[in-house]
Design brief:
By secondary structure, this protein is of the alpha/beta class. The chain is 48% helix and 15% strand. It is built from twelve helices and nine strands. The two termini are 38 Å apart.
């Protein structure tokens, strides 16, 4: 047995102990370990600096005290959503206790399914994005695939991706490497596709710069690419923006929106993606303490950005190298 495999097995064993314990705890107790994890993360200077840098860049109108409160609360939401997702996975009665898909959204999604329309879901890292991937198949009978980044450890990968998410009937996980080809195959076979819009996607991999809180950021254009593919091949498809946030009653509740005009009326792909990003920004402003500020969202500065715009980016931001835009030929 190789040393790396031994390490992976030990990591898996170490994760399985708290994993099983979380599954056995009453739901009301989950807030205790979630708060402990969140507060521990908040004590790490690098994490605090990253979160505050992002909030200052996106929401400069907030005072330092308000930004600190938002950042701290975002960590609490992140850890609680993670533990809750582990707690309810594969248990229909628990899903119903935790996740709510409003009747009007359920009816619209079922209508798309009945008409044979493929749904291209667009989600941000807001609230519980894991919940968004569960609710459409569970409540509205939407057969779909969701794009996920694989975990390097193969045992944890099966646990967290293949085992966990796919226990909901109608949901299959595809991994980010080669995801577009797999997503196209899913659409051709009649299934929907779930995408995450706010990831730092290189231009050479299908990303493009669009404004996010007034700053150009590299974003995945996959929902637009998939929609154009469907239109070109006569496959009925619709883009649905969706996000799932926790409401005061404790339930993770879904919200959804559609593009403001027919897809063919947009000038180009960037205009479509920009509107989707504006919808995302609207929900983040509404629920700022549920956004994933613990991520280098403003990592890349467009090379042609003027000096006054560059000064608004967080300190970790850089102008990407040429290979960000295109693959350089090897000598």
């Amino acid at each position: 047995m190789k040393l790396i495999d031994v390490r992976y097995r030990l990591e898996y064993a170490a994760i399985m102990i708290p994993y099983v314990l979380i599954r056995l705890l009453p739901r009301r107790v989950l807030r205790l370990p979630a708060a402990a994890i969140a507060e521990t993360m908040h004590l790490i200077p690098g994490i605090r600096r990253l979160i505050q840098a992002n909030i200052r860049a996106a929401l400069p109108e907030y005072s330092a005290a308000e930004a600190a409160r938002i950042g701290r609360r975002s960590l609490h939401h992140l850890t609680y959503n993670m533990l809750e997702f582990i707690w309810l996975e594969g248990r229909p009665e628990r899903i119903r206790r935790c996740y709510r898909l409003p009747d009007d959204i359920t009816a619209r999604l079922r209508g798309h399914v009945e008409r044979g329309e493929r749904i291209i879901f667009v989600n941000p890292h807001l609230g519980s994005w894991e919940a968004s991937g569960v609710m459409a198949p569970f409540y509205a009978n939407v057969s779909m695939v969701a794009i996920a980044k694989p975990v390097r450890n193969p045992y944890l990968n099966r646990l967290l991706n293949r085992g966990n998410r796919e226990r909901v009937r109608g949901l299959e996980i595809i991994f980010s490497h080669g995801a577009i080809r797999a997503a196209v195959g899913a659409l051709r076979s009649g299934r929907g596709v779930g995408t995450l819009i706010d990831q730092n996607t290189r231009v050479r991999d299908g990303g493009m710069f669009v404004d996010f809180f007034g700053l150009p950021v590299a974003s995945s254009a996959s929902p637009v690419t998939l929609k154009r593919y469907c239109d070109a091949h006569g496959i009925p498809a619709v883009i649905v923006y969706g996000t799932s946030v926790r409401t005061p009653d404790g339930l993770v509740t879904a919200h959804s929106e559609y593009l403001s005009r027919p897809f063919g009326d947009y000038a180009d792909d960037r205009e479509v993606l920009q509107e989707l990003m504006q919808i995302s920004e609207k929900y983040i402003r509404r629920f700022p303490d549920q956004y994933l500020w613990f991520y280098k969202r403003f990592q890349y500065i467009p090379p042609d950005a003027p000096p006054e715009l560059r000064r608004r980016y967080p300190g970790y931001a850089v102008v990407p190298p040429e290979k960000f835009f295109r693959r350089t030929a090897r000598a």
